[in-house]
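W.,

You were right to be curious about this one. When I first looked at the sequence I had no strong expectations either way, so I just let the prediction run and decided to look at it fresh. Below is the sequence, 232 residues in total, followed by the output.
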Amino acid sequence: MNLAASTSMRPAVQTGGVWWRISLVVCWLLSGCAPTWQNVRKEETIKGPSRAYVAVIPEGWKRAPTDSDVLLITRDGVFLQQISISRYRLSEAFAGEKVTADTPPEQLGQWQLKRFKEDEPDLVRKVSEESKGVLAMFPVANARPLSGSTEKTALRPFQIGGKDAFRLETRSYNSWGLAYTSQAIGFVHEDAYWLVRYMAPSLYFAQLDQHTFEDFVQKLQLKASCTLFCSD
């Protein structure tokens, strides 16, 4: 797959300073200034919201202190690699669109692409320190891919946990001109729309942890929702 972008789509940037800016952001996100992340010292199995899924977090990765509907993990920092699981009510999945259990995965994929082009979700909580001192010079938001820069590289059918899904591959850029590769798997499960996503800089990191994402997806189990008197 060719991940090189046309010069007309790529923001103008001096790339020499990109990596130290990213490093600064990563240090902040994984430091005491940010909310406490959970270090996963050995492979750990977790149950998702309402026990609708079971996921295996890789050894040596970190889990973000997000709310119960979101799983966000990284090894080195969310702008170097991240794997996430997000859940949306069917009525809120895509504005102006009706999503049901029978909605074709390809249609879901088209709607998801449109959403990526309009905006990127905030999965990490931000605190006031970002607007102070040196962090104010290179705010966390600058490392996020820019809305409007997303390009589709592939959209195809997929299967995850026995469910029909789509697999959407995209490329986008942040305000420093750094290209990101994204792989998103979307499907309807237990009256909700789910998105399992891997995102990393196209240069070096995307391929470095590709096998980790494939293993994560393979081990992901989808379960019947349960909130009271669950057997497991």
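Here's what jumped out at me. The two ends are 42 Å apart (CA to CA). And, maybe more interesting for your project: Helices lie at 18-29, 105-118, 205-208, 210-219.

Coffee later to discuss?

I.
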